[in-house]
Amino acid sequence: MSGVADSPMHAIIWEFRAQRGREDEFERVYGPQGDWANFFRGGEGYLGTELERDIETLGRYVTIDRWASAAAHEDFRSRNLREHEAFDRRCESLTEQELYIGSFLTMPGDGKQ
What percent of the chain has pLDDT over 70? Predict the structure, then answer.
């Protein structure tokens, strides 16, 4: 019998360069308990956010937003597009660069489920 734990999760990965001197604020907004995660919590199928800080390059971060499925993420995004875009504009001043890495499946058995 197949269950949720057997299904791959959907992960959205972004790379950011935080504005110099605003790293603490960036971490508060983009971290697992931050403003973005709180916004996503309103979506069915949202599973959490990870924030990874590069140990060699100051101000470089990766976020991983996990969803139960690509459909859950797309549904949330389409239902909240206007709010998502407005929130994104408000956060622009925290970053020098934002790069969409891609959408990935977290495969069963990798320890994340």
Answer: 90
